[in-house]
Fold this protein.
Amino acid sequence: MRSPSIGRRARPAFPVLLLVAAFAAGCDRPATPADAWQGPSPMVTATQPAEPTASPDPPAASAAPTATVAPTPSRPAPRRVFPVRAGNVDYHPTHGGYPGTDVFADCGEPVVAVTDGVVLEVSRVDRFDRRGPLGPNNGGLSVSLLGDDGVRYYGSHLSAIASGVDAGVRVRAGQQLGKVGRTGNANNVCHLHFGLSPKCSGHDDWWIRRGVVWPAPYLNSWRKGGNRSPAAEVATWQRRHGCPASPGGSAAGG
């Protein structure tokens, strides 16, 4: 015999449950319109979480927008070039009496600014006299440049100085300053005396200007297209020695 439940459509249990709940509630108080059935509550499924029983906290007031500070672009390192623009150039890593380098090249070859900076001093007249005191005028025709890196670059024994190269003039790396020569105490040999030093002011500091740190390691770099900086070594020397008020060692050369 077929079961009476077979073939019958299953009826939802919601109305029965609601009637039971209403009957239970009616035992304590009379029914009100609010007790009317409003339809089934939403079902909770695995893909639909239950509604929270407590109202969430109201969203916090949005903070005032903060200004975005763009990073300051790093300043590119100063470019440096070899001080003599010629194919046939030679120099020795040491120098007699004090740090410096004699860069040997034919007379007339271009001498250029090693880096961007401002011309400090220019000597356009060869005042060297072997009967006079050695030192102050040894360089003959010369130019000193204060680079943007704080280093003073000095070149002497020039045969000529370029037009417009005067104290206070700004020059760029590779700009011609003069020509290789043999003025001053150059022993009649064409070369550029090259020195690295800090800028010292308030007195004639030719004994510092001629060079205080060895240039050869930096010349080696620049000659190969590198950009090694002497700034740290020069600054260290100045912290240790300041600006000496008188020359030490040999007064010859430079």
Summary: The CA atoms of residues 46 and 243 lie 83 Å apart. The radius of gyration is 44 Å.
